[in-house]
Specification:
single chain; alpha/beta; seven-stranded parallel β-sheet; two-stranded parallel ribbon; Rossmann fold
């Protein structure tokens, strides 16, 4: 791969799935990457996957403001060029079944944590006078299936936050984007498939069914999302800010597709 990110420092949240794939992609293209996750088993897997690459993996609870601040300050001591907020949680429930605690947790991880990480990263990005923030959100922020009230609310709010951040950050040379995947094979997707499997259907059956819901006929791969994020963070995308990039296999393009 080309060294598009030589001499650049990147912070990535989420040590599995799309976060891990993005960290590996940026590192292979020359970036020094600081990756974080809350699950130590996932962190250990990420360290093994990143062996030989300039990737440091740390345990950080993104709902702990002080822990986030300390991680960002330590990782950005040598400067900062890229922040990718890829960590998230899936929650299920409608207006009647979503509890206030589930609502709070979804918004804490899927929305507030993105703001807090960006807030602490901002002075370092501004000082550099360049760089990019990418929020990984979801097509559920545009159109919804049933039973995802808290999750969809958070994801839609990320789209609005991205626009507001982009307008504020642009005069300082920092771009802000969001990426909205459709169904992507990750541990989170596999967990979600397991939640709705049953009655003779396995998790793999559910994933295949979800894939058929996309005009392209399959679920996506984390590496495909990572490739898009890498482009968004590169100098090639220098005129791209304040918008969302959908990578959804045509899911939201088809009438009644979500």
């Amino acid at each position: 791969m080309t060294a598009r990110f030589a001499d650049r420092v990147a912070l990535v949240t989420g040590s599995s799935g799309m976060g891990l794939a993005t960290a590996l992609r940026l590192a292979r293209e020359g970036a020094r990457v600081h990756l974080c996750g809350v699950d130590e088993a996932r962190n250990a897997e990420a360290r093994r996957a990143a062996e030989g690459l300039p990737v440091t993996v740390s345990r950080v609870d993104l709902t702990d403001d002080a822990a986030v601040r300390d991680w960002v300050e330590g990782a950005a001591a040598e400067g900062l060029d890229i922040l990718v907020n890829a960590a998230g949680v899936q929650t299920y429930g409608d207006l009647g079944t979503t509890t206030p605690a589930e609502w709070d947790r979804s918004l804490a991880v899927n929305l507030r944590a993105l703001f807090v990480t960006s807030h602490h990263a901002w002075p370092h990005l501004r000082a550099r006078g360049r760089g990019c923030i990418v929020h990984v959100t979801s097509v559920q922020g545009f159109a919804n299936q049933r039973n995802v009230l808290a999750y969809a609310t958070a994801k839609g709010a990320v789209h609005a936050m991205t626009r507001a951040m982009a307008v504020d950050c642009a005069p300082h040379g920092v771009r802000v984007l969001s990426v909205s995947p459709g169904s992507i094979r990750t541990p989170l997707l596999e967990w979600g498939a397991g939640q709705v499997a049953g009655e003779g259907r396995t998790a793999e059956d559910v994933i295949a069914e979800w894939g058929r819901g996309h005009p392209i006929g399959r679920v996506g791969e984390a590496e495909e999302v990572a490739a898009l994020i890498a482009f968004a963070c590169s100098d090639e995308a220098g005129f791209l800010t304040g918008t969302d990039l959908r990578i959804d296999g045509g899911l939201t393009a088809r009438l009644g597709g979500v």
